[in-house]
Amino acid sequence: MTETVSPQDNPSAPPRRRFPWPRGLSARLLLFTAFVVTLAGLMILPPTLAAYEEQWLLDRVRAGELASTIAESDPELRVSDPVAGQLFDQAGAVTVAVQVDGARRLVLPPKAPMQTPYLVDLRRQNPGSWLAAPFFTLTSPPGSMVRVMAEPRFRKAEFVEVVLPDAPLKAQLVSYFWRLTGVTVFVAGLAGFFVYLFLNIFLVRPMQRITRAMEQFRADPDDPAARIVVSTRRDEIGRAELELDRMQTDLLTALASKARLAALGEAVAKINHDLRNMLTSAQMASDRLAALGDPKVAQALPRLERALDRAITLASDVMAYGKSREPAPVSRTIPLRPALEMAAEDSGLTPGGVALETVIDAREQVLADPDQLHRILTNLLRNAREAIEGAPDRGRKGRIFIELRRVDGHSVLRLSDDGPGVPARAQANLFQPFVGSVRRGGTGLGLAIARELAQGHGGDLVLVETGPGGSVFDLTLSGAPEPLPPSVDTDPKQP
To answer: Which of 434, 466, 457 minimizes the C-alpha distance to 447?
Structure first.
């Protein structure tokens, strides 16, 4: 049985569109161009119709004005019946009047009663009424009459007035509307086609070319055909092509470097694995030599053991740093003093050589992963011990002082030593693996690993100050738990 999964049951499914809408930029551009051109045509129609109606009415007024000049030759100052019939046939005028010196005179009186006309005064029209006039005419009741007033052109008078039916004007407006619509559609379509063609050539196609180059590069970065071909354009499209070409170059360089590093890392891992096996065999051989009881062997054996310990530690650090990511810390509240003592013991600190000094109470606690905190402290203490022992005038003796402070809900461990300090050339890359080593032959992994683990705890490891009198590091850990009650005993061997 097949089960249908609705979009509500599958949030990862693309949302169903209520209205179809083209996804391609070219199709959207075509629709947008058609919409803009149609809107422009609609905006042209009202003023064109208004101008046509105004001219049509003005022509009728001029015909009435000419008739009034003919009437001047008649003793009764009226248009004769033959002229009146001709005027009605040509202009459609029912009545013509002229106002001179404040007196309104009918030149062509109506021959039959007529309904009250609506007024169109061509002498004074605001833009709103001028644009609305054609639509008012088209929606007027059948058989309506229009009274048109305008300033005279062929005689001296205050105004010329003509009354005529608006049915011929309606017919002319409708006919002109359809002719104008046809011309507008043709011109708009032609203009829209050229606009679309222009935008498609200069914008859409270059964007499609850039998009295809990105898709092909993402699918196969090594394919030469996936590289964008930079044009000679100097606009935004040209800049986008140039930046894409630079990005592809940088990514290819990074991918090649990553491939080389991966191959190198695999080779180092294999070599390191075999090296650890060899060092383990050498350590077992040194244990057998220690059992012989030879004084000369016993005298040289400590140096051999220290060299083996350092080699094994280096191999372990390389393997630990070669992991893709450190595991997330499993933090819990642990006593700090026992953790420091265990790290000092594993770091080779002794009361007769480089000694650990602290005023931290045995009940003080920190929030951290016990194993990762041990690695952080061991790396820091071992680095400090090796720096002190490497100073030629110290006689392999010195001190490392540790104190605890609580700042803004964080626990800050300050480690101070009286060693020779960090050289200026090493300070810039102090926490960079393989380049931040201070002593000769070092790898710089100790501080890099310690800082990475500290940042995983929501804190950090920073060099506060350094100089000939020693160095000061601050190890910050998230959280500041309260000390243990006085009744609780702590075991130095149980962190």
So the answer is: 434
- pLDDT tens profile 390-438: 887 777 888 999 999 998 889 999 999 988 888 877 777 777 765 545 5
Distance (Å, whole) CA 218 – CA 458: 35
Residue pair 33/39 in contact by the 8 Å Cβ criterion: no
Nearest residue to 123 via CA among 159, 169, 165: 159
> pLDDT tens-digit profile of 268-305?
766 766 676 677 777 777 777 777 777 777 777 776 77
Determine the Cα–Cα distance for residues 333 and 317; give it in Å rounded to an integer.
26
* H or E stretch covering 356: strand 354-358
Residue 456 tokens read as 């995983």
Q: Is the pLDDT of residue 37 over 60?
A: yes
State the angle between helix axes of 295-321 and 236-290 in degrees (0 to 180), rounded to the nearest 10: 160
Q: How far apart are the first and last CA of the chain?
A: 59
Please, are residues 157 and 100 in contact by the beta-carbon 8 Å criterion? Answer: yes
Residue 82's pLDDT band (cuts 50, 70, 90): low
CA nearest 266: which of 225, 319, 217?
319
What is the reported pTM? 0.42
Following CA atoms 353, 358, 361, 365 in sequence, which dihedral angle do they give, to the nearest 10 degrees? -100
Query: What DSSP designation does 122 have?
Result: S
| Sheet with 103-108: strands ordered across | 103-108, 95-100, 159-165, 145-150, 118-121
Under a CB-based contact definition with an 8 Å cutoff, are residues 130 and 54 in contact?
yes
Q: How far is residue 93's CA from residue 164's CA, in Å, rounded to a whole number?
A: 5
Q: Which two tokens stand for residue 264?
A: 């190198």
SS3 content of the chain, % helix, strand, coil (to 5): 50, 15, 35
CB 294 within 8 A of CB 258: no
129, 121, 125, 73: which is closest to 99 by C-alpha?
Answer: 121
Q: What is the crossing angle of helices 205-219 and 25-71, to 10°?
A: 170
Read off the amino acid at residue 145: M
CA distance 473 to 432: 16
pLDDT tens, position by position, 184-215: 788 877 877 887 788 788 887 888 888 888 88
What distance in Å separates the CA atoms of residue 43 and residue 39, rounded to the nearest whole number? 6
Superfamily of chain region 331-478: Histidine kinase-like ATPase, C-terminal domain (3.30.565.10)
Written as six digits, the tokens of 435 are 């380049």
Query: In b/e form, how buried is each residue of 276-307, taking b as 16+ CB within 10 angstroms?
Result: beebeeeeeebeebeeeeeeeeeeebeebeee
Total count of residues recorded for the chain: 495
Closest CA to 402 of 354, 442, 367: 354
